[in-house]
Amino acid sequence: MNQYLTLAVCQTGPVQRSASRAETVGRLVNLLERAAAAGAELAVFPEMALTTFFPRWALDDPREIDAFYERQMPGPQTQPLFDAARRLKIGFALGYAELGEEQGSPRRFNTMDLVGADGVPIGRYRKMHIPGSEAAEARVTTHLERRYFEPGNLGFPVYTYRGVRVGLALCNDRRWPETYRMLCLNGAQVVLIGYNTPLLLDEAPAFAHLRMFHNHLPMQAGAYQNTVWVAAAAKAGLEEGQALIGGSCIISPTGEIAALAMSIDDEIVVHRADLNLIAACQRVNFNFARYRRPGEYGLIAKRAGPPDS
Known about the structure:
Oligomer: single chain
């Protein structure tokens, strides 16, 4: 008998800086309700789904900065989303800015949590590949994630949801093949991704026509080369003057886009994922145990780039 998991991608339109946390959480609850009504069992929200994408600004006021972070998850303002999951019997993955403390020092991560259909958190991932810079650079799209977040320190964990092994990733992680391979080697069958991506880059106007292609390409390759399902949720539309790309999708282990968002607003995309496709694709091309040569790949872990880079 086939094994299926019905996935939902919950794309959001822009979240403006003026939006209250309660207003934004209300939008997410509505999307989760729509996903459940469509038969979804597991949903994914975008990266930093609770706030505007604040790394587009160089902020200095600690109180202003801290307002974008969550000190606990769930907290009083996010609890309604967890309550909705329990009421609807649907799990979800949520991206947000995490503010914690270790030995008296603040720790800031770009984080995604996996939550069960009972509204109870299952596991956490912290974004590994932090892009951008600490300060604005001339003729470069302002993207200051390295100002506000440190690299993740939880590795690439895989969690079990309804008997299915689920991995998490965030935005820039999706462009790196190591993300999918690590999750695959840790046993992932489904990878949930949230992202915020500008439609255009000031530093690469010649690549403007390739933005959506480059958005989907690494996710399709990652799904195909690692025989996993990928469900990716974007923030989309015009947010604080910056156009975000959208293109939320669900991708099969064959590398094909099985379902694709059609708007740049709040939208759900649902697909009944056949998990038997994973084994079928492994038989065709990727019998990892038989064909991989781990002993020959040591340089991948030893060197960040070519010798002259």
